[in-house]
Amino acid sequence: MKLLVNVIPFLLLITLSFTLNAQSDSAVQPNPVSKKVANPSHTKVELVYKTYTTNKGYQYLDPYIRTDGANDFPLTQNSPLLRSYFSNCPTALLQLDGYKTNINTFNRWTLGSFGAGGALALTGLILAARQGNSIPTFASFLGTGFGTMIAGAIIRQKYKKQADKNLKEAFRQYNIKCYVPLPKDTTPKEDSSLAKNADLKNESVDNKNKKPKKAPKYYTILRNEPKDLKLWGIEATPVVVDIYSYSPSVGVGLGAFYSFPGNARIRANYEQSLYYLLNDNHRATKPPAGSYASYGIPSNPTNDSRFEVMGSIPVINRESKTDYKVKIARRGDGVLVPTISGNKVVAMNLRAGFIHENRILESISGLPLTTDKPLMTTPGGEPLQRYFGESSVMLNSNIVAGGLGLSLVKDLKIELKDKTLKGYRDISSVVDFYLDVLYAPSMKYSDITYYYPSPNGEQLTENLSVTSPLNKVGARFGFRREGLSKALGTAFGVEMHVKPGPGVSTEERVGVRASFAIILTGRRN
């Protein structure tokens, strides 16, 4: 209950902060129409929506910026292009700021409700384990967690609707107060070069008989298939940090993954520890003869290792539109195309896998080891005492994992029209959030060799079987991002876990893992 007392106020604080943000992010109300500004703009700027239809027939409206009735640009939240057009129109900028504020609040509710819901579910698992695997405790926290996610999804829509209102009002304010069309030239067309130029540049937006000039095409979309990445990869992990009270270490790893049609994935990786953060000489080194040192070490010690195979299958796939930051530019012209609108996928996944760990456990503060073997006695019949406080033991674990994951998948490849253009041409990424339950059907301590004090130089040893209790249930909540834009990509991941292991308090089994990997990727046909 102590953990519950600490966690609940923290979650309430999160909720309160969102409430305060929601109050401060109130909508900017439309301003009454007033007289034109002193320095009007002569560029017509409109908000238009284009209909996008997915492969399954779902339709979405994507906002675009249209200038002078011809050039269309995808709208982004912080579009410098839009702000430059509105720079001389304070009322429009005020509404644009309101749009940005409400979109930020929308995003905070999205991330906050999912994070708080996941934290509640993990808290329920920890408390349930402390209460003897109490199903009612876990079910109540899990239900509250899902309820938090659903409530956040409902509340965030309020800010999305208000953001849309602010955006439309920004365009309205600009066109009413700050836009003045160029005066129409009544000179006969054949006698006026200015009229000819205006016609060629399509600057006369009031003449509806003229066809608008098409925006120059700087790129061609070659691929936009986030529902089927067709990726495989081999990854080298130069650093893995595992912070765990009985075995904190730093190591390296090697792995591979493969994406099946529909983005079902399987991933396998092997890790080997190289450096141990406790720096304890009693880890696997016997005491020198002629000393009073007395402790036990594994009879056949090896370096820590970990092998994991994990698969995921999407059960909900939602395809929608997003803006890819391509920043197509030409020297001397600056950025010509900041973003390109394309498909993205948000998927809910079922996860299942297997983990094998071989780990030496130790603790400077004392590892609670027990054995059922009677004490040895001296030739005089007096029992020899054992001190396990500075001992170490190897734990062999076979763990099954299963849970839910949320994935955000992006995939876009373009071809630039000529060599003078620069920009991001290949953008592919996978972001995963996951919550897994861990269960170890098979866990076993290795035998240890215990060394008794040897002040006279004669070292007395004893082989012991460890009978300390084990806790087979655990959980983990994590995040992993894979940047797969080039043949050589990268991945970064962080997870918090409660490991199956020694039968100690839950707090002592909590740990954090972080890793960074370099990925060599390819695509299947």
UniProtKB/TrEMBL annotation:
Signal peptide: 1-22
Transmembrane segments: 109-128, 135-155
Keyword NAD tagged: no
Keyword Transmembrane helix: yes
Origin superkingdom: Bacteria
Keywords: Membrane, Signal, Transmembrane, Transmembrane helix
Biased composition (Basic and acidic residues): 186-209
Region (Disordered): 186-212
Protein name: Outer membrane protein beta-barrel domain-containing protein
